[in-house]
Backbone:
């Protein structure tokens, strides 16, 4: 690419949510000119980018036309029109992550087939095209049904425990996965630039809110045995290299009670499991994504201290203009970093922000995180 | 104030330069709605704020009208119309720092009188209203002549060494200061909120570029004797309390060879001597300024590690569209944080950005800072 990243080069981001917002906060430091496409006129990125366009991310023409106005495209959400991206790539727009990578990851079925083809450990699965096929499954109850496409933030995922649950099954092309009794959910974010440099962030441990299937609590760095961390990080590197991705790749994994690591899902972009890196690591995931797509040297990913991240979700039963309770109380604590996402309206379990707690003492960080979680409430 | 800082409250910033830009980067985390007034249509804040208005900061009507559209005003530059701010205060707009504080600090003569009245140690001085009065000075050569108003970034300051230099003296109301043979230039940033909570950042040491009278190199935290650091921090607290300021106050001081601390100048806002706090301290000066003006608990100011900050100044002899040499080379080093200010055009010694280097080892941070300084060049 001829243009300097800090100069005339125009970066387009597909999606204008909180991931785009935090990416822009980092892009400001490098004078990067950012255009954003998002269907929501009040998207979190709206007022922070050089140019904002309200429009569909899945409409071919909209994405194509948006892409023709920039030099490089990246994403903050996978659900985008990949045909448009492929055409843009053919016409010389740099698309990182590459259209073929997004196409593969968009479809949980293709993702699983990719794991299988590349000897990447993952839970046993079958692909079905309709609900009807559930009766012929070889995978026993309980299992997970995931829509192949368009699931996000816990939506499009069902646990099917028995015959009775079949009534609730999705009537759409799905991935059926054997239920894994995992001990821990772990994640590694890896970055790869176009020179082929690859770098992982230290492995993190997550706790999920089972009710809504969202990450609720994340601890960095992990204190699981070094051997497990290394295995998880090597797996992430292998996947990044097998994909030849340019940009960030978040690799979510299960650690099973017998010490196996099974890859669950990929996200080819900054990810909720990397928000703690803003204050917790020398390089943030957002800075790393920019370094990767601009083919710059990758930054030092080491942890600066223990960091615990909690998501701020809209309280159940509240919908409307967001009110944040407890912010002042939380700001009185040391090492607490509040990130609100600029969403005017809350609804139950909507991701409204996150808080990172850093502390030299891991237990103190965890205790404080629990307190923050109990203190801040997003109501309406 | 009735409105929540993350909600309907509108914050106005007078000035849209790099200090406003970094303040906005932090304000994003708290959903703060920011309006900016700056005479330059391409000011660094232009594309990052909710509302940008191009207009004079020293014109009464422009500042007044801008202020009437917000709930709270703050500044990132002192040279603003204070009469308008006083009227806005009377009419219920919250102005932090207060108009009277800005008025006092705008005028280096009033600043010095304030030091004298409050027993704050400072170099001996005289105030003169015209060049003519220089012949009747009781202060011996060499001395410093500073314009009482509107000096900035080393402009409006002359050293007058002898009779021959008198020809170059400013013909305007000035402050004449006895030349201080100082050993170190040191600075402390202090914050005070409306509850009266006061908190200082650890003292830093600076190195100046004598040619252009700009901070070129800053080291945090200081390793001067604890007693000196404590004295400097206590002085900063005393000044903040004497002024009853709400917001940040940067206190620049000289440490003399015999161990005295003399207060040089004040800035009632985020300051170049606090840029390292973004990565070097638990709370950044920008986050702290927001906490102070919104009357929130002040954050932990402790250093997270050694940090060295260098300014990126436009190279001498280059003027035009800015080109940054050496960025990639510098990004290959660990713990290096580049901040470009979004200024399209460079000119000799213009502040175009800064770089902070953090390292557990102070000497390594200093060595790397020297390397960064020799590597990055802002040309045209």
Residues:
């Amino acid at each position: 690419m001829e243009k300097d990243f800090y100069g005339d080069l125009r970066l387009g981001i597909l999606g204008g949510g909180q991931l785009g917002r935090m990416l822009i906060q980092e892009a400001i430091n490098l004078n990067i000119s950012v255009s954003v496409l998002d269907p929501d006129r009040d998207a979190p990125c709206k007022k922070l980018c050089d140019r904002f366009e309200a429009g569909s991310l899945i409409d071919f023409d909209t994405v194509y036309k948006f892409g023709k106005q920039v030099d490089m495209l990246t994403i903050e959400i996978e659900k985008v029109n990949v045909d448009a991206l492929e055409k843009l790539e053919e016409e010389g727009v740099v698309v990182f992550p590459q259209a073929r990578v997004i196409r593969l990851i968009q479809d949980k079925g293709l993702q699983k087939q990719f794991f299988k083809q590349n000897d990447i450990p993952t839970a046993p699965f079958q692909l079905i095209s309709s609900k009807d096929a559930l009766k012929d499954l070889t995978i026993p109850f309980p299992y997970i049904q995931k829509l192949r496409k368009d699931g996000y933030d816990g939506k499009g995922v069902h646990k099917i425990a028995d015959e009775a649950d079949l009534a609730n099954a999705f009537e759409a092309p799905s991935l059926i996965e054997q239920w894994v009794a995992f001990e821990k959910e772990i994640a590694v974010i890896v970055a790869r630039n176009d020179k082929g440099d690859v770098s992982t962030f230290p492995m993190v441990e997550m706790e999920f809110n089972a009710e809504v299937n969202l990450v609720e609590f994340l601890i960095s760095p992990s204190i699981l045995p070094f051997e497990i961390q290394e295995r998880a990080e090597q797996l992430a590197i292998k996947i990044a290299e097998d994909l030849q991705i340019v940009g960030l790749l978040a690799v979510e994994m299960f650690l099973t009670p017998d010490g196996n690591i099974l890859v669950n899902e990929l996200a080819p972009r900054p990810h909720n499991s990397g928000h703690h890196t803003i204050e917790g690591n020398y390089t943030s995931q957002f800075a790393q994504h920019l370094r990767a797509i601009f083919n710059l040297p990758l930054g030092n990913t080491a942890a600066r201290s223990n960091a615990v991240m909690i998501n701020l979700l809209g309280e159940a039963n509240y919908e409307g203009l967001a009110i944040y309770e407890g912010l002042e109380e939380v700001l009185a604590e040391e090492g607490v970093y509040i990130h609100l996402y600029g969403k005017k309206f809350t609804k139950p379990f909507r991701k409204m922000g996150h808080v990172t707690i850093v502390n030299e003492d891991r237990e103190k960080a965890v205790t404080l995180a629990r307190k923050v979680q109990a203190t801040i409430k997003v109501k309406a």
The two ends of chain B are 47 Å apart (CA to CA). Chain B is about 25% helix and 30% strand. The interface with chain A takes residues 4, 6-7, 21, 25, 28-31, 47-50, 282, 291, 296-297, 299-300, 304-305, 321, 323-324, 327-328, 331-332, 334-335, 337-342, 358 of chain B (CB under 8 Å). The mean pLDDT of chain B is 95.
